[in-house]
## 1
Amino acid sequence: MTDDISLGPVIAIVGPSGVGKDSLMEALVAAEPRLSLLKRVITRAPEAGGEDYTPVTEAEFAQREAAGEFALHWSAHGLLYGVPAAAVVAQRAAGRGVLVNFSRAMLVDAQDVFGNFVILNVTASPEVLAARLAGRGRESTEEQAKRLAQASKPLPEGLHHVHQIDNSGELSAAVQAALAVIYPDQPERA
Ligand SMILES: Nc1ncnc2c1ncn2[C@@H]1O[C@H](COP(=O)(O)OP(=O)(O)O)[C@@H](O)[C@H]1O
Ligand SMILES: O=P(O)(O)OC[C@H]1O[C@H](OP(=O)(O)OP(=O)(O)O)[C@H](O)[C@@H]1O
């Protein structure tokens, strides 16, 4: 898409199911007006809840893909996910950093596409993940087990700007750690 670092960064939030990616993104946007959150297009039922997404059928997803609407798209958990290019362009052009919940498998492609690209790899112990997924309650027990089996998937090779963010403890601690990475020149926040 562009290598122009005068545009706001695209900030990939990655990590296993239940680690707190969506919670962290929402808290970051609430804490920092220079950040915005990318709303993904997903073939997930509209009533599933959780993150704010654009629900579509598989046919509509295919139409949007064919029309070139997505900067990137992938398949995971039996669903299709798309990152709408126009929304990313608009948010970056306004100078904002754009938070996107990405698949770890897409990071090398995303790094090529977006140029100014930072990865926050969010971590927590397997016990914490299992408890949080159960607490979220969006997926069946069987689906939770499938997601937990994917939890330790490593990041691909060849990524330039990867930062680990521990979300084992309070969410506010992870927010502060993430802000320190995204805006390293800012004094520590209260
Ligand atoms: N630091 C935290 N402490 C306690 N609960 C958390 C924390 N971060 C996230 N959660 C909870 O864990 C569950 C999974 O979080 P979510 O943001 O949906 O994870 P992900 O998007 O990575 O799958 C949610 O119920 C959320 O409220
Ligand atoms: O390749 P992976 O890194 O394992 O990621 C696979 C998918 O899991 C996450 O989706 P989603 O946010 O729908 O699920 P989650 O909340 O359970 O993580 C992530 O955004 C990817 O779409």
## 2
Amino acid sequence: MMTGAKSVCASHHGALDPQRRTAWPLETSPHPMQLTISPDNPLEWIALRANMVPVPLLHAQIMPVISKAVLEAADKGVFDAVAEGHITTDAIAQHCKLNPKATGELLGLLTALDYFEYHDGRFTLTRMARKWTLKHEPESVYGMMLFNNRVMWPWLDKLGTYLETGEGIHYHDHLNPEQWNYYQQAMVAASGSEAKEFGRRAPVPKALRREQRTQMLDIGGSHGQHSVALCKRYAGLASTIIDLPAAIEQAAPLLARLGMGDRVRHVPGNALTDDFGEAQYDLVLMSSLAHHFTPDQNRDVARRVAQALKPGGIYIVNEFIRPETGASPELVGSSTDLFYGLTSTAGNYSIAEIQSWQRDADLRTGKVVTYRTMPGRAMVIGAKP
Ligand SMILES: C[S@@+](CC[C@H](N)C(=O)[O-])C[C@H]1O[C@@H](n2cnc3c(N)ncnc32)[C@H](O)[C@@H]1O
């Protein structure tokens, strides 16, 4: 049935569509991974093509409910309750201190969304839910769900004002310590699987393979997962993470549990004003921070990074990429663009824009690595001659 939430699904041509259980041939892929409305039969396909389906109703009525339901389920411990063996509606409601009728409604929606399977009055977690929603699973996005539910959700109310004024909320300026903690936990959750791919596929200067002692600077590096991934791959590499003091207060224990000791260390600072030094780093990474800065600020960061790089060193801007308006739809890049506008007044940038900051800093550009596990993200590389 196309008109249900079940039809609003992520499909990846080339992967298994989770709702339809259909393998799509790789070579038919016109776009990267997309959130789409996916008809279940030829009649629905025709109805969709004939514009008989009220698509905006799905966006306006179904999607907000889906998002909030998933966030509340995580926050109320519903996924973990099922993992711990509370598998009937009443047992889940009792364990999570929820109303049984309301819990039944929530579980129905989450089952339609493929978080649960349901047989004979019992719920079990699907493979997808087990990997991504549980509090203590290594790649879980639980931290992001908590942050989005407790800190970010009220920000969305301000989207109308942002659209009128163009002025975002600049959350880095006024989070309280508890919110900083949710934020840093969210960053761990958001970048856990990405950091693995970054560690495997990030282009590195030859020095990292050849020399015994090499240095990395990780600007806005927070939890340090990207630094750790590279340091595990290159035994001679050590990394300095510069981040805001309030972030480091919360991120320090998150980095400590990765067990890298002094090889990956935090230094409090401000990327907008600090001098990064002179010819001292082989590699500089700035991951998911350019979208909080204006073009001029990013150009200035690139200039100071270029100064701080050794000859042959590289600067990786790891970012969500803003798709050109009218290009193939890419929901991750375009929705995060609006979201970072709302939250920081800045937003995403195109690859060409990022490369222009690097070229203005006399770095050589050309290489761009897109992620296989995350649409809309790329490493944009500038190299110091
Ligand atoms: C979106 S998070 C990205 C974290 C990490 N690099 C990643 O990719 O997962 C942005 C980080 O930049 C930090 N940050 C924001 N403004 C900064 C500034 N002016 N100087 C240094 N760090 C900053 C934040 O505290 C936060 O830890």
## 3
Amino acid sequence: MRIAVLGSGTIGTALVRAALSSGHRVIGTGRSERTLERVKSLGAEATRNNEEAIASSELVVVSVKPQHFPEMVSSVSSDLWIGRTVVSVMAGVRLETLRRIMRGAEVFRAMPNVNSTVGKSATALTGEGERRGEVDSLFRTVGVTYWVQEELMDVWTALVGSGPAFVSELVDGLVLGAVASGMSRELAYSAVLDMLEGTIANLRAHRGHPLELRDNVTTPAGTTIAGLKVMERRLVKSAMMETIEAASRRAARLGKVIDEKISREISERK
Ligand SMILES: NC(=O)C1=CN([C@@H]2O[C@H](COP(=O)(O)OP(=O)(O)OC[C@H]3O[C@@H](n4cnc5c(N)ncnc54)[C@H](O)[C@@H]3O)[C@@H](O)[C@H]2O)C=CC1
Ligand SMILES: O=C(O)[C@@H]1CCC=N1
């Protein structure tokens, strides 16, 4: 298949790589010379011209930032979408919005995460169409896939899309705590990553509630309960809950704002 990736940034580049590794022919677009050179160095074609990329491809991945989407689609002739399969990885932007601007295309949404750059994304997919299998295969090249109802995309975006940033903040906090207690940053960082990997393996092996693992670690009058008391006093769990809710609300808001811009764009075209 011939695949176009519109906006070859962090996620777009991971998908260019994935598509090439699956034997597809790929054309990536970007605005800067640096982006185009990077795409070429991976073995794909590169162009600034989104229309040229769409016209020559069966499957089109839209991986520009949501804020750049209205401007990007306004520079593309609406006829070009007819008969294409389009997959948007943009946060918030709804299928309904995509269908309205890309008449005649079958549209899907995907929400991967930055771990796609190391083949370890968990990607939510939604939408319907004949190329569902090909869309699934593309994202399985960068990790695991889950087909979900569109209603879940905003919270998925918060939990899994933004999740690596939240976990990185927690990792940084743990490392700094160890540094404050006298450990070198380098040793602490390596130790935290090993501890996280082990904890994930343990949670997956036991498949119970995470609090069962917590209780197995927590010795009466021991070290863990001393730390847990601080987490409880500082409302860490509550903060994590609010973090996911805030990010999810932001995804929904972004979708609404982009939908309004696209509606204006369509009425101006008429
Ligand atoms: N970064 C992440 O962890 C995740 C990002 N996403 C979504 O993926 C999309 C891309 O995000 P990133 O890769 O982080 O952004 P990025 O900024 O790294 O990449 C976007 C690329 O699009 C290019 N671009 C902008 N307007 C363009 C146009 N008119 N034509 C061609 N190229 C254009 C930019 O120059 C840039 O290279 C966003 O919509 C975001 O919501 C989804 C999941 C995770
Ligand atoms: O922060 C963002 O909006 C994007 C979507 C998910 C991860 N990064």
